[in-house]
Design goal:
With about 425 residues, the chain is an alpha/beta fold. About 30% of the residues lie in helices and about 25% in strands. The chain has 10 helices and 18 strands. The strands form 3 sheets. Strands 1, 2, 8, 9, 10, 11, 17 and 18 form an 8-stranded mixed sheet that branches. An 8-stranded mixed sheet has the order 5-6-4-13-14-15-12-16. Strands 3-7 form a two-stranded antiparallel ribbon. The longest helix is centred in the first third of the chain and has 18 residues. The structure holds flavin-adenine dinucleotide (FAD). The site of flavin-adenine dinucleotide (FAD) has 40 residues, from helix 2, strand 12 and strand 16.
Length: about 425
């Protein structure tokens, strides 16, 4: 089924009763070439690119709940490629380039909106760091502009630029950054993968990894054993639990991150703005709700709900940056479980267990990485060799001391 203006029109004439289901609900086959554990954005994108780029279609995505129930449907929808380090920047720029063509590619409206992101700067040290990052971006061919204080004031007149707490002195702007409707990404990749023959199996939890002679031969699930030549983990906040089934201990901690939505109001914020001093980020959805978030809750948890002290912290930071937020009513908040790595960067690699692959460690920022992660993970699984852009995202980099620490925060997962 192809979506087009004509198909919308013709289905409208038929009372919208002729649309097909977006993906099938197949029973698991006894054996697949590849099983992907986790039907989040990364798992579904990997299945899509395995089929599309490598012709590998005997693939199952095994999801313990429903598609989009994890972080892919819980995030604040920000996409960007404003990275400093050589090991990060080209990877995230590939992702942004893939986002730019994604809706045409998978023929689904993901409401990709390149409205720009402005990272505010509050002191000389932050200005130096922003300039350095902006220059690094430009050297990689990525768009970046530095705004001085007056340019920030013109760009976002609702900001309290001259506040006494953390006065704003400038900002680093990436025009091509923006937002994407998060759950539509899951649906688009699911639909695209399914139409190429991938089985998406929902409400099926992986409970064990069966090994024979040191190699993985399939997964134990709540619907029985399913065999596979290769098994690829994409379980985000549950990565440590799944890896434990193969006897692996990952350099990952799981933390909760909350997000918030306000009542709908008229257009007010037309880009993404981040407030470095309070760690607060905000945009406005097409429905009018303000969508925002802040820090992770600082304790380890697998529960998809957060604590009230972080609600207060986020509201306080938002109000300091945009005083008129104090007049808003907040409608909803929710939490997702974050796979926080030791250096704040992801892992896309083979594991020491033969035929078992890993994709995790996305910390605060895995949504923007979804297309590139799927692209590169599919390359790794198909070729048994890492994609050139993920060479620094290896699992053994912690043992080798070759960190990819974008923030320079050191080996403390909750600080990245
Ligand atoms: C509140 C919040 C705000 C965020 N904001 C942003 C943002 O603005 N920009 C950005 O780039 N990133 C953001 N992120 C991070 C981003 O959402 C995640 O890094 C990314 O979605 C993780 O990859 P995923 O989509 O594959 O994860 P998920 O959607 O969580 O997918 C993992 C899936 O694995 C399944 N699973 C786990 N264990 C098993 C098992 N044993 N068997 C079967 N299935 C299993 C889970 O049910 C889940 O569906 C945010 C995250 C949160 C929570």
């Amino acid at each position: 089924m192809k979506y087009s203006a004509l198909s919308v029109f013709l289905n409208g004439l038929r009372g919208n009763t002729a649309w097909q289901k977006m993906w099938r609900a197949p029973d698991p086959k006894p054996q697949y070439d590849v099983i992907i554990i986790g039907g989040g954005g990364h798992g579904l994108a990997t299945a899509y690119y395995l089929a599309k780029n490598h012709g590998i279609t005997n693939v199952a995505v095994i999801e313990k709940s429903y598609i989009g129930s994890g972080n892919v449907g819980r995030n604040t929808t920000i996409i960007r490629s404003n990275y400093l380090l050589e090991g990060n920047n080209p990877f995230y720029e590939l992702s942004l380039k893939l986002w730019e063509g994604l809706e045409q590619d998978f023929n689904y409206n993901a409401m990709i909106s390149q409205r720009g992101i402005l990272n505010l700067v509050h002191n000389d040290g932050q200005r130096d760091a922003a300039m350095r990052r902006g220059n690094a971006m430009r050297l990689h061919g990525v768009d970046a502009e530095y705004f001085d204080k007056e340019a920030v004031r013109r760009f976002a007149p609702y900001l309290d630029v001259d506040q006494s707490r953390f006065p704003i002195v400038g900002g680093l702007f990436q025009p091509r950054a923006g937002t994407v409707r998060h759950d539509a990404v899951a649906w688009g990749f699911a639909r695209g993968a399914d139409s190429r023959g991938v089985d998406i199996i929902q409400n099926c939890e992986v409970t064990g990894l069966r090994r024979e002679g040191g190699r993985v031969v399939g997964v134990e699930t709540t619907r029985g054993f399913i065999g596979a030549r290769k098994v690829a983990m994409a379980a985000a906040g549950n990565s440590s639990r799944v890896a434990e089934m193969a006897g692996l201990k990952l350099p990952i901690e799981t933390h909760v991150l909350q997000a918030f939505v306000s009542e709908g109001i008229k257009p007010f914020i037309d880009s993404v703005i981040t407030y470095s001093m309070g760690h607060f980020y905000i945009s406005q959805s097409d429905k009018g709700g303000l969508v925002f978030g802040g820090d992770i809750d600082m304790y380890n948890s697998y529960a998809q709900r957060g604590n009230l002290s972080m609600v207060e912290h986020v509201a306080e930071a938002g109000k300091t940056m945009i005083p008129r937020l104090s007049r808003m009513r907040y409608l909803r908040s929710w939490g997702g479980v974050m796979d926080m790595s030791m250096d704040g960067s992801p892992i896309i690699d083979k594991t020491p267990v033969e035929n078992l692959f890993i994709n995790c460690g996305w910390c605060y920022g895995g949504f923007k990485a979804t297309p590139a992660s799927g692209w590169c993970y599919a390359h790794l699984i198909a070729n048994d060799a890492p994609h050139p852009l993920t060479r620094q995202m290896r699992l053994d980099r912690f043992a080798r001391g070759n960190m990819l620490d974008e923030e320079g925060s050191g080996p403390t997962p909750n600080r990245h």
